[in-house]
Amino acid sequence: MNFQNDRYTLRMAEQQDDAGIREIFESGSFPGGLSVQYLRPSPLASFAADGEDVRMLIVHDNEQNRTAAVGGAVVRTEFVSGKPERCAYLTGLKIHADYQKQLYFIARAYQYLGEQLADCKCCYSTILDDNRSVIRMLEKKHKNMPEYRYLGRYTTFCFHGGRRFLRLETGRTDGFPELMQDYFSQLDLTPVHPELAGFGEKHFYALRENGKIIACCFAGNQRALKQYRMNAYGGAYRLLPHLPTRLLGYPALPKAGSIIRHAVVSYLYIAQHDPKLCRKFLRSVAAAEDCDLLLWGGFENHPLLPAMQKMKAIHYGSRLYEVIWNGAPQIHGKIGMECALL
Questions:
Q1: pLDDT tier for residue 255 given thresholds of 50, 70 and 90
Q2: Is the distance from CB of 296 to CB of 265 less than 8 angstroms?
Q3: Torsion-angle region of residue 265: left (phi > 0), alpha (psi -120 to 50) or beta?
Q4: What share of the chain is helix, strand, coil (3-state, %, to 5)?
Q5: How far is CA 335 from CA 94, 185, 299, 320, in A?
Q6: Are the beta carbons of 38 and 126 closer than 8 angstroms?
Q7: Do 319 and 180 meet the contact criterion of CB atoms below 8 Å apart?
Q8: pLDDT digit string, tens, across residues 95-115
Q9: What is the 8-class DSSP label of residue 2?
């Protein structure tokens, strides 16, 4: 599909586009006081690891023979109303810094993407709180654009251990399949398949009482697929990397320009959502992992969010949307989507 006097072509991404897509990721960063660059060393391999199918589009500049923009969706099986359904996570449109405000194709691209996702039960996306211009654009209804139905806030928690509070089992997953069936299946947008490569090289941690799991999670090193580079600290955050945050129970913040040594917690279960058990369990997991900080994300109605909010952690927020081209909304219950796959 060509536009703007045939200078640009909108098409599905192919393997030879990987380097151009990577350049787009490297040209941008998260806005805000903590300026973070989100990188994927091999974008197409990384997207493929996050699901069972990838529907990625690019805009190719025919004059310059380079990739100007990328966007699309990762398709995976997730629980919706207790049933496994085919769902699509929209990765968001990313435009190379050299092409900002030069491309006029958004409605056409969304129409084309919607046609590619007609087999999905529901589609959803997240937008960082600080990305105000994109939020304003997408929340305002436009002709030929899907509806971005605001569901609420999603918070990512960044924390570390300091010391090990509990002696945890590793690698023994018996009892976890029952939790998938009885607990995680009741949280919309929880991935049905915990073995997806996008979770990273992961370890399973569990605490048992009388043989029954009372706390568990996976912690995954996904740095081969996804990386975060701390670009700069601005405003009130400029002093943070110089403060002894680790002594206060918070993660030690990396120097500007460095890659953050992170791991991601997924499928977190805490019996009775006990805040004290949650804190001790996650601090013990963090102390066992070879990383600077751990990430866990939860939607505002996630049953563990009140417990997580009592932990010492650095937060960053996003807005969650169901993206609707046709038909009725599908997401109504408690939400358990995993930040490892966002």
A1: confident
A2: yes
A3: beta
A4: 25, 35, 35
A5: 26, 10, 6, 10
A6: no
A7: no
A8: 898 888 776 778 888 999 999
A9: E
